[in-house]
Design a protein that fits this description.
heterodimer, A: alpha+beta, Flavocytochrome C3, Chain A, domain 1, Methane Monooxygenase Hydroxylase, Chain G, domain 1, six-stranded antiparallel β-sheet, B: 252 residues, alpha+beta, 2 domains, two-stranded antiparallel sheet, 35% helix
Chain lengths: 660, 252
């Protein structure tokens, strides 16, 4: 029997960590990527990677608390077993990266330096300057290059994944790919295919994502029958630099090192920021959230910045913006941020060491993605390591890992948790593959009839030729521009049902117009426009998943915010009335949890997504209202605890508030 | 502020076809970069004299000067399309912006070139840390802040190829590995675990295409967008190679 192989689609952190893990286990890997692995979008991650460390441990931190912060940050929509396992692996993953040569910042005795990030009170984040993603991507790319030389990894860079190959029993038997130089289409037979293709930010037009982050690989699996989960949960990063071609990220590490967000107290105050005295500045995050300050989780910071700008406090007349101020920071802190300050200076032409930066929220990350399974360990509450179910989609043999999966971040991702989830998902899925290969249903890919692969190649060849014939009046780039504008306008920070309805109507129109696209390039060699037109069809499909999921979810949860369904906060001055309002709040919260704490599942039909809901595993940490110490909201936390205590009659020996 | 920007772009339909020039006008926007110009051409692929054409092919990904994709010659100087602002180019030449592909690599199409040689040279030089595996084997080596500060600049190299394009010694015909590869060799030789392969790496650097091809023009330092200290790297490489050469001499 021929040697069994695995195809990995995507050369970012998730794909590389899976590839190197499987190579270590002796499994040959074909790594398919649109760009050289070293240029994958992981390279853009700036701030760092989270784990409990020896310093935070002595401050009272633990793996459990990292897990609790992750789930609280995610508004309890995270699948708890994989999220727990991830947080418990985190210290080991950072050690592994350190061993691979990642240039983490150091302290005098040679240990790794750490900084604080959003959604936690502990300095958990290890970092390599302000280019942590770049350093980590290189570390893993170098390991994979080593396996290339050993002959266990074969890279197919500048290749587009066109779709999975499923046999008549629905088992994944490989992938069809296209060489983007020669435009030649061929099959890569494989006994497992791992999608590690990142997020779909380009659907929103201008975002912080790379141009390659169209979500097309996920969409192609979705069209082939893979379920897509929680698509409506899109993270909008609070601080980006608005640009003409994209919005560039200004890392949360800027606030982690002490950066402060503010606007002038007086609307329309156009004095240069350095001339506005301290008492005329409104540090609105610090004022509203005295405990977390500028490091509230991203969904909250984004809504607050969005809100103050909408209320007329924007510091710019050209576009909405707030100040992110680093000018007060000492030299040693500024030094750790050089990578991102350089970006700001280069692209805006202003020195952020001297003048506060102008920032505004931008689409950044997808918490949702392809639905994947896991096997829960009944004893630890984490995962059964080595189980082939970990990371497998509903299509047997098809996996999804990294930003394109959905499990770890719930309704909102904490900063510096994505590098962690990418690497963890890659390693843990890789460890399960040997068992999958041994128990493969109906024999290996190599023993399948060649007609299976030939037919799939023919199908994609025909679709390619259809694309080349597209001859209508619509420019595909113009259509994409309009798609991005509509998605950003109606489906990001604040969502309303009437607007989402309108958006879905517009998406139908876009799909009709897509049929009238003219391909402006008919070339048979390095045809980048053709690739983009093919991706545009996928973006339209996923846009509907995102919009439909958002329309149907009538609540506020993490990044998904519908003011119409927000539970009113207690506001009364009279203590008795305040208490009554808090009880009402908590009851409404309990009802909302009952009704909406569930995973959105989208299944493809040619007429649009079919939406259903699946339960979320919240067995380890029970849901609670998410207040982040909002001024005046302490009463909610107190009342909720009282209600839980009364209701539950806590069994003896169980930890009081969800454990420590 | 100009109403529009004029771009003169060198185009080539495939690796074996002849190159030709086309001129485009695109609407000016404040703070626009070269990438925006190329995006505007894709939105309306028509030349300045009204001729319909194809969108320009070029490699791009992050658009924030960290992935190294969009390297090209802009007004005759090698740099990234994303981080090159039109306002600055108009100060260099108010009339026209000229875009050409890198010349040290085969053209795939238009401004997109095949830089796989760079990655192959990283294989040849074993540019990695040979760890013992990916299981939990405890923490990595400790490192002083000073050492980290010295090495971190090397690890910011994004293999964009600017140093090779600007190097008079790096040609399509020879095998010279170029400044970036020598700097990365020094990086891995300086890492406590990476140093295990130091002799093998230096052995490669002593072969044809190795460090002796460097002509010390120092262009690599001037053009590097990430400020990688290539000249210091090459000097250290020389030192390491020399020490190795002497060692070899006496152990014969």
């Amino acid at each position: 029997m021929a040697k069994q192989r695995v195809v990995v689609v995507g050369g970012g952190l998730a794909g590389l960590s899976a590839a190197m893990k499987m190579a270590e286990l002796g499994i040959p890997v074909d790594l398919v990527s649109l760009v050289p692995a070293r240029r994958s979008h992981s390279v853009c991650a700036q701030g760092g990677i989270n784990s409990v460390n020896q310093v935070t441990r002595q401050l009272g931190d633990s793996e459990w608390k990292h897990f609790d912060d992750t789930v609280y940050g995610g508004d309890f929509l995270n699948e708890q077993p994989p999220a727990k396992e991830m947080c418990y692996w985190a210290p080991r993953i950072i050690d592994l990266l350190d061993r691979c040569g990642v240039m983490f910042n150091r302290l005098a005795e040679g240990d790794r330096d750490v900084r604080r990030f959003g959604g936690t009170l502990y300095p958990r984040t290890a970092f390599a300057g302000a280019t942590t993603g770049q350093q980590m991507l290189y570390g893993l790319d170098e390991q994979v290059r080593r396996w290339e030389v050993e002959g266990l990894v074969t890279k197919h860079e500048f290749h587009d994944f066109l779709g999975p190959i499923l046999d008549d029993k629905g088992v994944c038997r490989g992938a069809v790919v296209q060489d983007l130089f020669s435009m030649k289409i061929r099959a890569l037979p494989a006994d497992a295919v791992m999608i590690a293709s990142g997020g779909p930010g380009v659907i929103f037009g201008k975002s912080t994502n790379s141009t390659i982050c169209t979500g097309s690989a996920s969409a192609r699996c979705y069209r082939a029958g893979a379920k897509y989960a929680n698509g409506e949960f899109i993270q909008v990063h609070p601080t980006a630099i608005p640009g003409t071609d994209k919005h560039r990220l200004m890392s949360e590490s800027a606030r982690g090192e002490g950066g402060r967000v503010w606007v002038p107290r007086k609307k329309g105050d156009r004095r240069p920021p350095e001339q506005i005295p301290e008492d005329e500045r409104w540090y609105f995050l610090e004022e509203k959230y005295p405990t977390y300050g500028n490091l509230v989780p991203r969904d909250i910071a984004t809504r607050e910045i969005f809100w103050v700008c909408r209320e007329g406090y924007s510091v710019s007349d050209v576009n909405f913006a707030a100040y992110l101020d680093l000018t007060h920071l000492p030299h040693n802190r500024i030094e750790k941020l050089e990578g991102i300050l350089e970006i700001y200076e280069k692209f805006v032409g202003v020195d952020p060491r001297k003048v506060p930066m102008q920032v505004f929220p931008a689409v950044h990350y997808s918490m949702g993605g392809l639905w994947v399974d896991y096997e829960k360990n009944g004893q630890t509450g984490g995962l059964v390591i080595g189980s082939p179910r970990n990371g497998m989609t509903n299509i047997p043999g098809l996996y999804a890992i990294g930003e394109c999966d959905y499990q770890y971040h719930g309704a909102n991702r904490l900063g510096a948790n994505s590098l962690l989830s990418c690497i963890f998902a890659g390693l843990v899925a890789g460890e399960g593959v040997p068992t999958w290969l041994q128990s493969l249903p109906h024999g290996a890919a190599a023993s399948q009839p060649s007609s299976l692969f030939d037919n799939e190649v023919r199908k994609h060849q025909e679709q390619y030729e259809q694309l080349l014939k597209m001859d209508g009046p619509e420019n595909p780039f113009q259509l994409h521009l309009e798609l991005g504008t509509a998605m950003t306008k109606y489906c990001t920070v604040v969502r309303h049902n009437d607007e989402l309805q309108r958006l879905l109507g517009e998406l139908d129109e876009f799909q009709a117009r897509y049929k009238r696209v003219g391909l402006p390039d008919k070339g048979h060699w390095t045809n980048q426009t053709l690739r983009f037109v093919r991706e545009l069809a996928d973006m339209l499909v996923l846009a509907k998943v995102i919009a439909q999921g958002a329309l149907q979810r009538d609540e506020c949860r993490g990044a998904h915010y519908k003011p119409e369904f927000a539970i009113p906060s207690p506001t009364a001055d009279d203590p008795t009335e305040l208490h009554r309002q808090a009880i009402e709040y908590c009851r409404a919260f309990a009802t909302q949890t009952e009704k909406w704490l569930k995973t959105t599942i989208a299944e493809y039909t040619p007429d649009g997504p079919r939406i259903s809901y699946a339960p979320v595993d919240t067995s380890l940490i029970p849901p609670r209202p998410r207040t982040y110490g909002l001024k005046g909201a302490g009463i909610i936390d107190r009342v909720w605890r009282e209600m839980q205590a009364q209701q539950a009659a806590v069994p003896a020996g169980a930890p009081a508030n969800g454990g420590k | 502020m100009p109403e529009y920007v004029t771009l003169r772009i060198k185009r080539q339909d495939g690796p074996d076809t002849a190159a030709y020039w086309q001129t485009f006008h695109v609407d000016y926007q404040p703070q626009m970069n070269v990438t925006t110009c190329l995006q505007l051409i894709a939105l309306k692929p028509v030349t300045a004299d009204g001729q319909k054409t194809t969108p320009v092919a070029y490699d791009a990904a992050c658009l924030e000067e960290v992935c190294g994709s969009c390297t090209m010659n802009i007004n005759g100087k090698v740099r990234q399309a994303c981080s090159t602002l039109v306002d600055n180019l108009l100060k260099e030449d108010p009339n026209v912006i000229t875009l050409e592909p890198m010349y040290k690599y085969p053209v795939k199409r238009d401004l997109a070139v095949d830089r796989s040689r760079m990655f192959n040279d990283l294989k040849r030089l074993k540019a990695w840390v040979p760890v013992d595996g990916y299981y939990d084997l405890g923490p990595g080596p400790k490192m002083s802040p000073k050492q980290q500060q010295q090495l971190y600049p090397y690890s910011r190299c994004m293999t964009c190829g600017c140093c090779t394009e600007a190097c008079p010694q790096y040609t399509r015909e020879n095998q010279f590995v170029g400044a970036f590869a020598i700097s990365l060799t020094v990086l891995f030789n300086s890492h406590p675990t990476g140093a295990v392969l130091k002799e093998e790496r230096l052995g490669e650097l002593m072969k044809p295409g190795g460090i002796s091809e460097c002509g010390q023009a120092q262009n690599c330092l001037r053009v590097c967008p990430k400020g990688v200290p290539n000249v210091t790297g090459i000097a250290q490489g020389y030192r390491q190679v020399t020490v190795q050469w002497f060692k070899g001499l006496f152990s014969r």
